[in-house]
């Protein structure tokens, strides 16, 4: 490599001393424990490998969990959908169950990166990356999903709002723990959802804004029983517009109420200005537009369109 | 640095090779195994020039740890050419339609097209554009590439 390019990150390779391929979850957790925080979980690697190359991440070893058994399925148990910790974006998009009963997640997963990225990248890895614009985080947050996290001490279940801790931090410490599954309620009758994404191009670009919404309506009374609105990146972590949701709960389906929800979300969001991704004021305006647009579509899909 | 022996199928042949822990598939293919058809551009998953098929599914080999291919099958652009030297219908279509200019993106484009046509020989234009959306071409403007994939599908059909 000529001198001029020496300092570019792509001229450097990743640095890891050991690449481990455990066969069971217990073995993987043991390996992580043995490295005492100096080893990191790698799943699809689409986030970890670029970070290692850019030296945003430095570890001694990688523990590849991609062959752990029993974590690659999408199942329904009662009214719950269970997405294994190794399910890729491509599998999620292709799943009829997800498309029919959690459409908002299929729509989000379909927009991640490129076909090649979706073939390797996993939904759990997307969540664990803690990125405030991660495309499947907003759908899962709107679906009130929870994640099961395993460590050598046992398993625990964390609801998504508590999972995100800001600054790319999450409740799952990927140097010690493994997300084994993600679960959420299947959407049913009288429920509708919508995913919207603002980005400069269709493929291979991180979103400027992502909105995911789920509404639950009473079709006879024409009222909104419940609404979830998740937005990113307008706060240090994926964000629920609780004020907007409160306005919608119990309210009649109307243009006025949808507009008021948009205004409330505008006030609640605190995006940062960026030369590349747009000013804070622009993003706030777009939050308003997206919340309205998303609600109109979700209400229509729930069988209760705004007249 | 630890090394480990990995075994996998490369373009239909069994390969067994010692690999250091930090090796990425693209470097194993190009530097260790001498298959220079797979290109390396951005090395961060953006440009798609390094696309290979892993068990018939397109992946970016620049961000794929080599150990991940243990026991699996990898197809590179070299693997498309028949034993007697004849080109794959997709390769022929790229030449005939003028879909190659500098050629840097071509292996990535063709590997993605191969995966698509394997599943669906008559894709709509939207499907073709979607399938190649993870490969960037800075020369052709994509039009002729899309055309080449279309005509390759038709040709594969008539030779079947
Ligand atoms: C070119 C390119 C484009 C991209 N575009 C997008 C995009 O448009 N939208 C988007 O949201 N993302 C995008 N990404 C980011 C990335 O592809 C996704 O976040 C992907 O879902 C990560 O999944 P993975 O399995 O590859 O994770 P990995 O890279 O394997 O891991 C990511 C992080 O999560 C941890 N981790 C992974 N799985 C688990 C688990 N089961 N338990 C505990 N910790 C775990 C790892 O330790 C690491 O910290 C892009 C990446 C690239 C390279
Ligand atoms: S070199 Fe792999 S995507 Fe650019
Ligand atoms: S032909 Fe030059 S990049 Fe595509």
Provide the succession of SSEs of chain B. Answer: EEHEEEHHHH
Q: What is CATH's topology name of the largest domain in chain A?
A: Uridine Diphospho-n-acetylenolpyruvylglucosamine Reductase, domain 3
The separation of the N and C termini of chain A measures 64 Å
Whole-number radius of gyration of chain A?
A: 20 Å
- Biggest sheet of chain A: strands, sense, closure? 5 strands, antiparallel
Oligomer: heterodimer
Helix content of chain A: 25-40%
Largest sheet of chain B: 5 strands, mixed
How many angstroms separate the termini of chain B? 49 Å
Low-confidence stretches of chain B: none
Return residue spans of chain A where pLDDT drops below 50 for at least 5 consecutive residues.
Answer: none
Percent helix range of chain B: 25-40%
Apparent shape of chain B: globular
């Amino acid at each position: 490599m000529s001198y001029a390019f020496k300092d570019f990150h792509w001229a450097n390779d990743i640095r890891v001393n050991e690449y481990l391929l455990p066969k069971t979850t217990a073995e993987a957790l043991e390996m992580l424990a043995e490295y005492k925080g100096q080893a990191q979980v790698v799943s699809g690697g689409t986030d970890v490998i670029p970070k290692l190359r850019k030296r945003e991440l430095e570890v001694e070893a990688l523990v590849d969990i991609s062959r752990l058994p029993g974590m690659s399925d999408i199942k329904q148990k009662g009214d719950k959908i269970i997405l294994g910790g190794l399910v890729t974006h491509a599998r999620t998009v292709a799943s009829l169950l997800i498309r029919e009963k959690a459409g908002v997640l299929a729509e989000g997963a379909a927009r991640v990166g490129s076909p090649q990225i979706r073939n390797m990248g996993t939904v759990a890895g997307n969540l664990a990356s803690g990125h405030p614009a991660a495309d499947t985080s907003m759908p899962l947050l709107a679906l009130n999903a929870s994640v099961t996290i395993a460590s050598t001490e046992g398993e625990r279940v964390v609801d998504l709002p508590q999972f995100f801790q800001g600054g790319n931090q999450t409740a799952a410490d990927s140097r010690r723990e493994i997300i084994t599954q993600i679960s959420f309620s299947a959407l049913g009758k009288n429920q509708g959802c919508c995913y919207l994404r603002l980005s400069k191009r269709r493929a291979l670009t991180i979103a400027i804004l992502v909105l995911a919404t789920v509404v639950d309506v009473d079709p006879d009374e024409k009222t909104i029983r419940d609404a979830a609105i998740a937005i990113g990146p307008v706060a240090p972590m994926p964000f629920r517009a609780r004020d907007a949701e409160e306005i919608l709960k119990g309210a009649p389906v109307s243009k006025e109420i949808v507009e008021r929800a948009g205004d409330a979300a505008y006030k609640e969001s605190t995006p940062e200005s960026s030369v590349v991704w747009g000013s804070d004021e622009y993003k706030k305006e777009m939050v308003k537009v997206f919340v309205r647009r998303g609600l109109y579509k979700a209400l229509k899909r729930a069988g209760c369109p705004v007249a | 640095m630890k090394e480990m022996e990995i075994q996998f199928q490369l373009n239909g042949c069994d390969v067994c090779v010692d690999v250091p822990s930090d090796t990425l598939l693209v470097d194993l293919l190009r530097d260790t195994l001498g298959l220079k058809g797979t290109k390396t551009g951005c090395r961060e998953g953006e440009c798609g020039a390094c696309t290979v098929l892993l068990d018939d599914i397109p992946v970016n080999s620049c961000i794929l740890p080599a150990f991940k291919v243990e026991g699996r099958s990898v197809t590179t652009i070299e693997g498309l050419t028949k034993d007697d030297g004849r080109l794959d219908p997709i390769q022929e279509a790229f030449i005939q339609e003028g879909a190659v200019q500098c050629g840097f993106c071509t292996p990535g484009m063709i590997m993605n097209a191969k995966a698509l046509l394997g599943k669906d020989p008559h894709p709509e234009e939207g499907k073709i554009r979607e399938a190649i959306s993870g490969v960037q071409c800075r020369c052709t403007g994509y039009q002729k590439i899309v055309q080449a994939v279309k005509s390759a599908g038709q040709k594969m059909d008539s030779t079947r």
